[in-house]
Amino acid sequence: MSWMAWTLPSALFFITIGCMLTAMTVFEVLRPCVERKGFLPIRTTRGDRLFIGLLGSAYIHLLFIGMTDLPIWYPFGIAIVWLVTVLRWG
């Protein structure tokens, strides 16, 4: 892995995503979910909502990086709120 310049934030990011996927897999095995409709216009499962939340978080970060000079912590906070909202009520 010496070809990639790993930083602590990027390593923590990918470790967190891996832990989330592992937790979702275990949770799905223990308690299978049923599709439901929340504020999103489609019926979704837990995995669908996780994917939509992560994708939205990526777009939030890209918008902030491309349009502002604010520190990355602002879009990070907004992305966490977005992800929790989609997972809970999406």
UniProtKB/TrEMBL annotation:
Query: Looking at the record's lineage, which domain of life comes first?
Result: Bacteria
Report the transmembrane regions from the record.
6-30, 50-66, 72-89
Q: Which Pfam families match?
A: DUF2160
Give the classification, highest ranks.
Answer: Bacteria, Pseudomonadati, Pseudomonadota, Gammaproteobacteria, Vibrionales
Q: What is this protein called?
A: DUF2160 domain-containing protein
Q: Which UniProt keywords apply?
A: Membrane, Transmembrane, Transmembrane helix
